[in-house]
């Protein structure tokens, strides 16, 4: 950090750290479970399904895609649940 670091830099660092933690957990789960614990899409690729409040942050999802080596699918119900709880 320097004296030129602002709130935006800190916010991006927090988002990046969340993505690196998720990537570490998924890698560990891959090693522990092996082939039998994977959910694959129709092309045989590993697919991570994401859901929850953090998934509404587009920057977080973009960073996660850039860091990880697998595809992600976001649940459509996430947005519906989020909107219905606000209304």
What would you say this structure looks like, in words?
It holds the Pfam family FGGY_C. Belongs to the FGGY kinase family. Keywords: ATP-binding, Kinase, Nucleotide-binding, Transferase. This is Putative glycerol kinase. This protein is about 55% helix and about 10% strand. The protein is mainly alpha-helical. It has one domain (about 5-85). Strands 1-2 form a two-stranded parallel sheet. Strand 1 (about 45-50), helix 2 (about 60-65) and strand 2 (about 70-75) form a beta-alpha-beta unit. The longest helix has 27 residues, at about 5-35. The chain is elongated and about 50 Å long. The N and C termini lie far apart (about 40 Å). About 0% of the residues are buried.
Beta percentage is: 5-15%
Biggest sheet features: 2 strands, parallel
SSE succession? HEHEH
Instruction: State the separation between the terminal residues, measured CA to CA.
Output: 40 Å
Lateral arrangement of strands in the main beta sheet: 1-2
What is the oligomeric state here?
single chain
Query: What's the alpha carbon Rg, rounded to whole Å?
Result: 16 Å
Number of helices: 3
Residue windows where pLDDT falls under 50 for at least 5 positions? 78-87
Number of strands: 2
Instruction: Estimate the mean pLDDT confidence.
Output: 78
Assign an overall shape.
Answer: elongated
How many separate domains make up the residues? 1
